[in-house]
Write a structure and sequence with these properties.
The chain is mainly α. It has a domain of 30 residues. It is built from three helices and no strands. The longest helix is centred in the N-terminal third of the chain and has 8 residues. The radius of gyration is 22 Å and the shape is rod-shaped. It starts with 8 loop residues before the first helix and ends in a 31-residue tail after the last helix. The mean pLDDT is 69.
Length: 60
């Protein structure tokens, strides 16, 4: 762990108990992402206002 890294309570308890704090971390128990997989693209169109609700349609 880094000197100034923030840890959660479960990691703190693991350190006190003499266990590996990385194994106690909830992030460590999740399915690890493969480094070969590209990051999932975000669908930005979900947050956009539909064209019918646009008060000033843009001319292309």
């Amino acid at each position: 762990m880094l000197e100034h890294e923030t840890i959660d309570f479960d990691q703190f308890v693991a350190i006190i108990d003499g266990k590996d704090p990385l194994l106690a971390s909830p992030m460590a128990t999740e399915t690890p992402n493969s480094s070969d997989d590209p990051p999932m693209p975000t669908n930005e169109t979900e947050n956009e206002v539909p064209d019918s609700a646009d008060p000033e349609p843009q001319v292309t």
